[in-house]
Each structure stands twice: as structure tokens, then as C-alpha cells.
Amino acid sequence: MRLTHLLPAAALALLACDSNPYDRTQIPTISIVPVIAAPLVVISWTPAGAQQVRVYKGTVANGQSDLLVWSITGSGMNSLVSGIEYGTTNPPGGAVDVAAKPLVAGQPYTVQVSRVDPKGGDSGGLTAAGARYQNTQTFTLAAIVIPP
Length: 148
Known about the structure:
11% of the residues lie in helices and 35% in strands.
């Protein structure tokens, strides 16, 4: 009698676990390109699209608002377009959450790019459905030297 109760539960557990496994290819790979003519950087990532891009003062992306120097969020799922210049006030595919503070040469900053699982769905928390994929990259803004 107990076996008949266990079989349906085991079958449901197997189906739920197979519906949407964690996909490491969705973790953003970030590149920071300094713009030499100005004290700013261009933030790019792959795969295409992001849900949120944040820049923190220091070497840790910890969510503390006092260290957050710029934040943008997509208007749709992973709608932010790669190749965004730091401080952009009207980012393609999104909006500014925290207005940019000036970057200081020699100061380390950490970029955090977040993507939502593009497969979507809800699996009751047993798989990666609805998961966020995040990565960080730290950079230091170089001083601009203008030749005489």
C-alpha cells in the first residue's frame, strides 16, 4: 500500500527536475573598454541581453546602496543592450535606477551584470526556471594624461 503512494511522488519529482536544468552558458561574460578621450567606460557582455547592470565603488558587488554608483534595469526580460556607456541616462531597452556618480581615476569599481533565465517558467524551485545568472568584473579607471 505504501509503494502505491511513493510511485506518483517519485514520478513528479523526476519530471520537475528535468524540465529546466541550470544553464552555465547564460552566465554573462563581461568586458570593460575604457574610452581614452574621457573618464568613462563602455560595458559589454555576452550572451546578448541583460536584466540589470550595476556598478559599485570598490571590489565587491554586495548590493549596498552607499557603494552603488550607477544602476540600470531592463524594461523587459533581458532587454538591456550590450555595449552601454557608463552613465547613460537613457539606456537602450531599459531605464536608470540610480543616476551615475562621477568615476574617479585610480579607484576600483565592480560591474555586475544580471540575466534572467530566458527559458522562463516556474518549476516550484527545483530547477533553474526563473533563475538569475550573474557575473562581476572589476576595473580601475586610468588617469587621463593630456600631452602638452
